[in-house]
Each structure stands twice: as structure tokens, then as C-alpha cells.
Amino acid sequence: MNSHAKRRQPQAEDAAPLTVLVVGEDTETRPLPDSPFIKAGCAVVRMTNPAMLPAICAKHRPQVAFVPLTIGGEPAQSVLRAAMAPQRLPVVVVLAENEEINAAAEAMREGAYDCLFRPFSDARLAKTIDGALGQVRRSGRPVARPAPPPAKAPLVRPDPAPLQIEAEGIVAVAPETRKALSRIEAVARSSAPVLFTGEVGTGKSRLARLLHDRSPRADAPFVVLDCATLSRPALAAEAEDADGALARAAQGTLFLDNLAAADPSIQPHLTGLIDRASGSGIRLVAALRQPEPGAGGLRPEIYYRLSVASVALPPLRQRIEDIAALVPAHLSACAEREGRAVLSLDPDAMARLAAHTWPGNLHELLNLLWHLTLTHDGPSVTAQDLAPSLPDGAGVDRAGGVAPIATGQTLAEIERAAIEAAIRAAHGSIPRAAQMLDVSPSTIYRKRDAWRKDD
């Protein structure tokens, strides 16, 4: 297939324009016209044949790629992996349909910079392009009208003013959150393994990425390995194959997510992968729900290998001060993403949020704000508007214990109640409910099918 590049007229003070590669058929990339890229000072190269990726990269040397999850009706995982291979493309943005949320999440775990869910607004596209340019600047690649990259500000300022790290979408007002960020600052420049601990939805993955971005390895790969999905053959492939996790994480960071969910039968082999990664100069970062050896069936030797430094992340119910800063920031982001007006919450509604116990932590709060943006009529949200989504007395108490369970319930009944509560908190989204419960979506679908047969 032929490719073509469209460039603006360079000005005297410009550096060579940054090149953006747009992959896919015309029908798949129609929402990506040349104009926003040209306005940002970029050259645009379009490619319809995925097999041409190596040749296009060699000829045009693009620094950014926009790649659909599906090309010509076929999954594009191989194209994405090739695009995200070391020394190929530093920044990859994924284009996805709403029903492709699981594949999009997998692409993000493997190193994609961002994901655009169709349909998206012009403002959302422009913001993504701007963010991609910023990422390339931080990697040291030349861009049009280059400016020296800003010095990284300390994660935590000595003053008590609310801290917002807007590039990473992190807000830290509560002392517990600021303590966690101080800990990240302290260990970022080390090569020591780091273990993030905290409940589901507390932001372990996001802060693991922040640790990488603040480290001397920031320009090297950040590779995610989901331990919950690993079989023994898959683990062997990740350790041995040329495109496995160890190869892709060379000189960078390997993040072991859902560590305690690893099948016990593969844990001895996982220990071997950890040792090989440590011996080859890869930094290891991991996420665990409980900060103790043997938690969740995890072998103690794995825990001790990874807990050289640890960062404990508080649940949202213990960092209520952050909610007042999180809400306006994420309502604004949701409005921009969906092309809708920015909502505000009245004082009673904010008090209702502060009183809720947030069993789903940040996932639950952010999904609620997204739901309100999509469904609420009018500029202001009241406490009464929140009542259907925040039932009184649900979830976990402030001290961190589980809310009382009615006596006389069987284990199956308790499990069903927990799953149904998570689905309600996720506003009907099975993938998001699965995230809250730290299980795969297929587990919830299978349980629901069984319940329907029994009802």
C-alpha cells in the first residue's frame, strides 16, 4: 500500500516537524482528519496495510502512532505490539469502540500512551495530541518549536496546599496520600524493587507508572504483566520469547499486577522470572492487596524479593479530603470527553460523597462522576440525585472493616450480594465491577448465567 504525508509550510524558527503515523482503513480513521495534527505542527503519514509498518517507520521515522484495535475487521494486537516494540515508536495512541474496553485496557497495560474511545470530541482529540507531543518531548525526541522540557517538580510540596499532578491525573490533599507520594519520591531514583499495597481501586497501577516516569528509566519501556491471567506456558513465553515481557522491558520497568492472584502452580516459575529480571537490569514493581507475606496465597519468597521498598496506598474512605479536589477535576475531564456541560455538586451532595464508604475506592467514585455526566439533566447535582447510586450503609466502614453481613446467609449468597453491589457501583458495567472485585469479567458473566438458571 502507498503512504502519503501532508506537511504544513515550515517556518524559519521551526525544527523539523514531528511525524504522526495514522494506521487503518479510511473508514476506521475518518475521525482523525489531518487538520488537528497540522495545527499542532506535525506531519501526517497514513498507512492502510499493517505489513508496511517496518518500512514506513524506517522511511518516515514517526514518533507517534494512532492505531485502531481493529483493522479491516481483524484484531490488531500484532500491529500494536510491533508499534510498541523498543526503538520503534515511543508513543502509541489506541482507537477503540466502547465494547472493546478489555482489549483497550490490555493495550494500555502493554505500554500504549492513551486510548480514544469513539466517538470522541475535537477537544478530546486535541488534548490527546498535545499530551502525545509532551510525551515525545520528555523522551528527548525533536519536535516542532521545541522548548526545554520543564523540570519535574517535587511530588510533594512542603506547604499544605492541595497537590495536583495534572499530567498523571493524581490529586493529593489528604496526609495519607501525600505520605504515599513522598515515599514514591524517595525511592524513584533507586533501582530497588517496589511493592505497592492497597485495596482494589486505590490506584496502584497508576502510581506504579508514576514511579517509573519519575525514575531515571522514564524513557525506557514500562511493561505490565497481569499475573492473574498467566498460565505456565504463557509465563514461559513471557520469560523466553523475543517479544515476551522480559525482552520488552529491557532497561526499563516490569510491573507485576495482581500478584496475589497468580495461580499457585506457576509461582515457583514466577520466582525464576523475577530473578532473571533482577539479574538483567530490569526494575521490578508489583501490586498486592495485603502488605504481608503469604497474603492471598502468595509464596513468601516472592513477597520478600519484591518488598525491598513498599508504598501503602490508603483507601478512599481514609482520604476523604481528596474528594473535594477529585470531583471538579474529573467532572471537567468527563465533560470534555463526552462533549457535555461541566456539572457541579452542591454542598449537600459533596457531604454525601464524604459520608460514603467507597468499597470500590477511586474506581467507584470516577465511574459515578462519569455516570452523572452522561445521565444528569441540569447544571447542579444534589444529594437526592446521588441517592440511587449511594445507598446508605453500603460497603466498608471507616475503620476498614467489612460492613456487617446478615446472619443466616450462605457463602454463595454473600458472594452474589457482593457481585451485585459491585455491578450497581459500576452502574451496570461488568468490566468495571470486575476491576473492583479483582476478578476477570468472565467470572462475573459465568456467575450470573448460573444464577439465572437457579432463579
- Taking strands numbered 1, 2, ... along the chain, how are they ordered across the largest sheet? 1-3-2-4-7-8
Please identify the structural class as seen in this structure: alpha/beta
CATH-defined superfamily of the largest domain: P-loop containing nucleotide triphosphate hydrolases
Helix content: 40-55%
Protein name: Sigma-54-dependent Fis family transcriptional regulator
InterPro entries: AAA+_ATPase, AAA_lid_NorR, CheY-like_superfamily, Homeodomain-like_sf, HTH_Fis, P-loop_NTPase, Sig_transdc_resp-reg_receiver, Sigma_54_int
GO molecular function: ATP binding; sequence-specific DNA binding
Organism: Maritimibacter fusiformis
Question: Secondary structure elements and their pairing?
Answer:
Elements lengths: L3 E3 L11 E6 L2 H4 L4 H6 L2 E6 L5 H8 L3 E5 L1 E2 L2 E2 L1 H7 L7 E6 L4 H9 L4 E4 L4 H17 L24 E3 L4 E3 L2 H13 L6 E4 L6 H10 L8 E5 L5 H9 L4 H4 L4 E5 L9 H13 L3 E6 L11 H7 L2 E4 L10 H16 L5 E2 L1 H9 L5 H15 L4 E2 L1 H4 L24 H15 L4 H8 L3 H14 L1
Helix pairs in contact: 9-11, 13-15, 17-18, 18-19
